[in-house]
């Protein structure tokens, strides 16, 4: 069904069908001009332009036959041609003059609909005095009334806004004698008279729909909801949600209250109207050509409306261009006028031009043209800068080019041409060949300002391509600028671009760029991207990037991962809710897989990567626990909340790992910590899912992993110790005492039955012991904590000793704790407990532990605590205890410089070597030789020359007469290792002749019978030593000689090294073979 046009008020369909054949066109005489600007104006249209005209059609009629009269009136103005054009103003004047008021009203309405208001009609219909009813008889024709007599109301009303509900009556058929002079009727009676329902004509369908809409709107606004529902049900053929459903092609009028207050009149905005008499060609409007009916807007299709809009836009652009051209012509004429104004009037223009040519001006070149054309608007300034900056930049010193950044950015922001903007941004990114840190910061600051000004769309279209172009630039500084720009621009990019293009660019640079500083910037920018990403599908890619960057060979890149990327990625997982459900479990699974695959050799680097990532996730994990606790909603900020202790949390690696920043503020964190401690201590963890996950899943899995790592790997022990230390310090003392320690203590049952000495796999021999001791028991340093640590180490030492189990776990604990001087006194206390223990096994273990502790302890403690304890043990009734003290004595000789201490140790070692009771102690001799080989190269030279080498000579000589072959070969092998280590030292000629060469010859004699392989090497060593001694007398060489460096000839070197490689010697000895005393 075709839409109804409320403005089509034809009386019948047959009449509407006849209208196309009733068109009468009139043309205005050229001599009649409509009011307009003077012809001399520079803005006046060309001389051959058509005057504003209107194609008049009799497609609207009135009951009184105005249309015929209008046609006659228009015909009377013809100038003789078959078709003439008449000004719309003349037509309006004729209609008003002949009192065709309704026809003039419809003419006025049509002009308003076309957006061209005629002042004559506007003024006439806006004057209420033109429509006041007069008493008495109607005036005659010659008095200005039309043939229709009184002003009867036609059945033609176009729009609601053409009605004046408060002023006019719709009674158009009253007889003349029923009229009453307005002055004789009181105002209230006049209002009653005009609004009386008996004198209104029947309501029309569109009027009814419009009023229904307004009434329903009134009921809803004033809370008459039931009435509104009932009213809506009674008018179920109408949609009260949409004004367009009414069918009127006008904007929605004000509500009933506004109509009532304004007397029903609705004023149109002046901006929506154009005077039809001011130089506008009516025929240019769409839908108003000669052979077409007036346009019915509700019947226009979408395509037709689009075509109309395009046509109007095209005409508008033409007019705008013409206007710009005319403005430029005016300015040119004004400049010419100003130029010639100061010349005498008798000078001809040619003479003036010739005279001015003697001024030395240059406007032919590019720069001359720019100088002679001064910008006089903001746009022209931008255009000028866009033209000039590409020529200015190359001529500015490199060190000062950053001064151009504001100019380039402002021009790029405001320039209207995309091509010029692209060129300017290209200049910005190529402004400096190799920008330093300060210059890069300036460029990035400008890029951020540009992004804030232009918005995400232009940042994507204009800035990102510049980054992409330089992603593989040959200079690392330029690639670094790209990496930093990706992070700086992340907040201003569309979210789709952040998680796709920018992420891919950074991933490419992370995997391909060879410069450490570029990859470091890439990691930081990736962290910023993770802070703004909202695509959960990118979680897997984020995990991959985290592990990839953690495995980077550069330490600065790895530090950036821990400081920026992991905290930002963890914050995103907090939002996703999968930090403790996905990220941490995946890392634990990788560690377990690594331990399973590494039974024959653990990849300690990968373990470090995964464990360091876990360690960086501890702060966000604790934030999850606090934010999902039962008491979170009760946290309040008070002024009396105590401040957080400085040592409450471990020192964060970056601000992003600071708990106060993660939570939001120190005050809120303090409030939550108070509630957290109270909850753990008094109310328990029931319903606290995040904390229960840590207690029931994370801790048991970690403890199980700890039991599987190699206890002799100091790196692994240290990594896990630091992890547990940070975990316990972050979660607090109450959590550590009530949740962590009980789980370890349940596993580490300190008894002999818990140590399987035969299998060697008891829990006390695993890494669980040193990690619990150094990672958990050292978290807090109060007296009770220290007592607990001392007791644990004493129990472990006792249990392992009595069980004849491996001491590796205890040694690992001493090494880890001994690295911190704070625990030296504590460890000495533990060892003294072993010194005075009743069991020789425990005393022997204590003696061996001194060797590990001596290197890190200051000489005062060595003199006051260590040496007395060792001397006590050296006189122990058990020979095994005495032998166990020898390595510790040797270590003292290696590290201590006090002569008194060295003499005491020398005397004790001499007693072991010279006392007859030890002559047949094979184990003691082996321990002394091993110790001499270990400490000799690093010991004080005098001690080595006067004590070590002479006693090695004696031991080698005595071994020649050893009757037990097994003991003889054992001594010989250890002597060979000791001499190999000492051969790298500088030895005086006297000692060389008296002790070193004789000792080598004794050892050579043993090796001839026992090990031919060793005998060859010893022969080479002896030969070279003899050559050196002989040459010394010839060359008067001064000082010491090095046996290892004296081996001459490639054959001898090759033979020596190959034989050394074939031998089975201890790692400790070979490590010292080529060391030199410094």
TrEMBL record:
Which stretches are annotated as coiled coil? 309-336
Q: Where are the HEAT repeats?
A: 866-904
Q: What is its main location?
A: Golgi
What InterPro entries does UniProt report for this protein, alphabetically? Answer: ARM-like, ARM-type_fold, HEAT_type_2, LisH, RELCH
Q: Where is the composition biased (Polar residues)?
A: 127-137
Enumerate composition-biased segments (Low complexity): 64-82
PANTHER family linked to this entry: RAB11-BINDING PROTEIN RELCH
Question: What's this protein's name?
Answer: LisH domain and HEAT repeat-containing protein KIAA1468
Q: Which organism is it from?
A: Cyprinodon variegatus (Sheepshead minnow)
């Amino acid at each position: 069904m075709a839409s109804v046009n409320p403005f089509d008020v034809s009386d019948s369909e047959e009449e509407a069908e006849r209208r196309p054949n009733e068109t009468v066109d009139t043309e205005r005489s050229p001599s009649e001009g409509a009011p307009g600007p003077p012809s001399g104006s520079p803005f006046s249209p060309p001389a051959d332009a058509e005057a504003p005209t209107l194609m008049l059609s009799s497609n609207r009629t009135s009951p009184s036959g105005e249309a015929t009269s209008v046609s006659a009136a228009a015909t009377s103005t013809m100038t003789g041609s078959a078709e003439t054009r008449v000004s719309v103003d003349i037509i309006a004047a004729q209609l008003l003059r002949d009192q065709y008021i309704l026809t003039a009203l419809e003419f006025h309405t049509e002009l308003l609909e076309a957006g061209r208001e005629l002042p004559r009609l506007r003024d006439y219909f806006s004057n209420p005095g033109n429509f006041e009813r007069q008493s008495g008889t109607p005036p005659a024709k010659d008095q200005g009334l039309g043939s229709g007599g009184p002003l009867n109301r036609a059945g033609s009303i176009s729009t609601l806004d053409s009605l004046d509900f408060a002023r006019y009556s719709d009674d158009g058929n009253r007889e003349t004698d029923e009229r009453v002079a307005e002055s004789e009727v009181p105002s209230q009676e006049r209002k009653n008279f005009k609004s009386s329902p008996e004198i209104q004509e029947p309501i029309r369908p569109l009027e009814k729909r419009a009023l229904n809409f307004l009434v329903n709107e009134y009921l809803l606004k004033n809370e008459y909801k039931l009435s509104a529902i009932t009213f809506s049900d009674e008018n179920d053929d109408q949609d009260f949600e949409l004004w367009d459903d009414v069918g009127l092609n006008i904007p929605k009028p004000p509500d009933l209250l506004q109509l009532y207050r304004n007397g029903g009149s609705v004023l149109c905005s002046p901006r929506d109207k154009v005077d039809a008499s001011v130089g506008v060609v009516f025929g240019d409007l769409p839908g108003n050509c000669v052979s077409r009916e007036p346009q019915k807007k509700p019947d226009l299709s979408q395509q037709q409306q689009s075509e109309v809009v395009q046509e109007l836009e095209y005409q508008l652009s033409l007019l705008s261009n013409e206007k710009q051209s005319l403005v430029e012509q005016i300015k040119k004429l004004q400049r010419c006028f100003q130029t010639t104004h100061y010349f005498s009037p008798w000078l001809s223009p040619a003479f003036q031009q010739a005279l001015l040519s003697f001024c030395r001006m240059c406007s032919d070149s590019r720069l001359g043209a720019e100088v002679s054309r001064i910008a006089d608007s903001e746009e022209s300034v931008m255009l000028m800068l866009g033209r000039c900056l590409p020529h200015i930049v190359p001529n500015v010193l490199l060190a000062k080019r950053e001064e151009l950044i504001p100019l380039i950015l402002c021009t790029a922001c405001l320039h209207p041409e995309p091509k010029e903007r692209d060129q300017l941004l290209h200049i910005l990114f190529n402004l400096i060949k190799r920008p330093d840190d300060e210059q890069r910061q300036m460029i990035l600051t400008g890029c951020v300002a540009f992004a804030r000004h232009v918005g995400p769309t232009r940042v994507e279209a204009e800035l990102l391509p510049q980054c992409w172009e330089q992603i593989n630039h040959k200079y690392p500084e330029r690639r670094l600028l790209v990496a930093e720009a990706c992070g700086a621009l992340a907040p201003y990019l569309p979210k789709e671009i952040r998680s796709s293009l920018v992420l891919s660019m950074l991933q490419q640079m992370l995997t391909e760029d060879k410069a450490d500083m570029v990859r470091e910037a890439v990691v930081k920018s990736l962290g910023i991207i993770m802070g703004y990403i909202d695509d959960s599908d990118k979680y897997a890619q984020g995990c991959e990037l985290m592990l990839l960057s953690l495995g980077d060979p550069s330490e600065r890149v790895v530090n950036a991962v821990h400081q920026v990327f992991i905290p930002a990625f963890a914050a995103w997982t907090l939002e996703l809710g999968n930090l403790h459900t996905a990220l941490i479990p995946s890392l634990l699974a990788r560690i377990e897989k690594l331990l399973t695959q590494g039974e024959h050799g653990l990849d300690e680097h990968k373990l470090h990567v995964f464990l360091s990532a876990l360690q960086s996730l501890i702060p966000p994990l604790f934030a999850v626990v606090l934010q999902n606790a039962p008491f979170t909603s009760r946290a309040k900020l008070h002024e009396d909340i105590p401040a957080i202790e400085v040592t409450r949390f471990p020192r964060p690696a970056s601000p992003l790992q600071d708990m106060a920043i993660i939570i939001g503020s120190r005050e809120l964190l303090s409030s939550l910590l108070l509630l957290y401690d109270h909850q753990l201590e008094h109310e328990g963890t029931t319903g606290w899912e995040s904390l229960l996950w840590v207690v029931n899943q994370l801790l048991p899995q970690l403890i199980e992993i700890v039991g599987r790592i190699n206890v002799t790997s100091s790196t692994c022990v240290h990594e896990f110790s630091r992890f547990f230390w940070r975990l316990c310090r972050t979660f607090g003392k109450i959590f550590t005492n009530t949740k962590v320690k009980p789980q370890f203590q349940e596993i580490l049952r300190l008894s002999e039955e818990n140590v399987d000495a035969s299998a060697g796999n008891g829990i006390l021999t695993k890494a669980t012991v040193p990690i619990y001791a150094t990672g958990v028991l050292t978290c807090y340093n109060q007296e009770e904590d220290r007592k607990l640590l001392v007791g644990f180490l004493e129990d472990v030492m006792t249990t392992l000793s009595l069980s004849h189990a491996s001491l590796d776990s205890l040694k690992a604990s001493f090494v880890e704790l001994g690295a911190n001087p704070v625990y030296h006194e504590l460890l000495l206390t533990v060892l003294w407990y072993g010194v005075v223990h009743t069991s020789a096994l425990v005393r022997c273990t204590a003696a061996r532990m001194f060797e590990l502790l001596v290197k890190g302890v200051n000489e005062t403690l060595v003199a006051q605590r260590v040496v007395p304890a060792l001397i006590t043990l050296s006189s122990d009734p058990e020979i095994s205890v005495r032998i166990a003290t020898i390595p510790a004595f040797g270590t003292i000789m290696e590290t201590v410089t006090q002569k008194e201490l060295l003499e005491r140790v020398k005397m004790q070692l001499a007693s072991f070597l010279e006392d007859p009771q030890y002559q047949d102690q094979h184990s003691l001799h082996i321990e002394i030789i091993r110790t001499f080989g270990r400490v000799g190269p690093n010991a004080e030279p005098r001690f080595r020359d006067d004590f070590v080498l002479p006693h090695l000579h004696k031991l080698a000589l005595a071994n020649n007469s050893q009757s037990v072959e097994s003991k003889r070969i054992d001594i010989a092998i250890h002597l060979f290792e000791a001499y190999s280590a000492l051969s790298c030292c500088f030895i005086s000629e006297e000692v060389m002749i008296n002790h070193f060469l004789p000792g080598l010859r004794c050892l050579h004699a043993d090796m001839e019978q026992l090990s031919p392989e060793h005998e060859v090497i010893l022969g080479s060593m002896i030969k070279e030593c003899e050559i050196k001694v002989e040459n010394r007398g010839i060359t008067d060489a001064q000082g010491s000689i090095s046996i290892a460096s004296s081996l001459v000839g490639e054959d001898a070197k090759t033979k020596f090294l190959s034989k050394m490689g074939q031998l089975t010697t201890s790692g400790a000895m070979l490590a010292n073979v080529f060391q030199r005393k410094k």
